[in-house]
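Q: What would this chain look like folded?
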Amino acid sequence: MDQQHKQNKQNKQDKQYIQDQKQEMRGRVTEVRRNRYVIDFEDRSIPAGLKGSFYGQPAEDLPIVGDYVSFLYNPAGDSVIRSVYERKSLLKRPDQAKTGVMQYMAANADYCFIITALNEDYSYNRIARYASIALQGGVTPVAVLTKADLCEDAGKYVREVKTISDRLRVHAVSALYGTGMGELEEYFAPGKTICLIGSSGSGKSTLVNAVAGEEIMRTGEVRASDSTGRHTTTHRQLVRLKNGVSVIDMPGMREIGMAETEEGISDTFADIAELESRCRFRNCRHDTEPGCAVKAALAGGELSMQRWMLYRALGTENTDNRAGKKKISVLAKEYKKLSKKR
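A: My prediction, written as structure tokens:
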């Protein structure tokens, strides 16, 4: 009797397997490691590979973390990803190790949390870069200045970061003491996806653990010598919280390049883009040309030299990522000198 019951159960599973093989299902990519994928489907983590037709396709067409995909389910092994659904947003950056090659980081994020600790990790320039990349990808940038308890005047940094763009939201928080954490609740709504970008040791994992009310991300120690943390995230990963919010965690990045971000830069520096549109000549270089609205704004104090230099540096790097790196290093040094005089 028991043997017959087992046989009937096995037959039922075999029939279900055959049916599943014919029916495409929809899931979301949570991890990518070379050619191996993990799909979130009905609260299960399903290993998967790619359909053969994917191979040889451009990198932009391959599934990445955050993508919704159709797949054929295989309970006995790897399922097969057949297609990628249209993305509503896409975060990408130039691959520093491969000149001229874009690196596709995450898809379908609603918010990009730019995590920066208010210690040696703080960088106005880096936040501007992240904001431009987020806006270019169709994601709302949110600068989260962590470890506010270690800073005597967090408000000063909030005001400074707000000058980057009127489309950049800014919050100063302390996960340790709960300061400012309530301001982040609006972003953690069911169905929303938040992408975390920041340096190692900036407090990404601690922040999410505090909001989630449980330890879902591993935290690492921070070296006292340079306020730099260990890389607790070694690959991109999507984690779904109990309330239905999805969080995409990125490996720590202290530097990020600019490429293919013309719209993002224009959105971040909308005030400068508007000034450029008022110049007498369409191809104005803002140097010696008469009727230059940018030069007039600099002379009248409407536009700060620091902001103008940052805009030029990012634009130069974006136009030619290789040649731009040399010029941007010079402009960055000039920017730091002016910043010290403020």
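The domain at 90-249 is CATH 3.40.50.300 (Rossmann fold).
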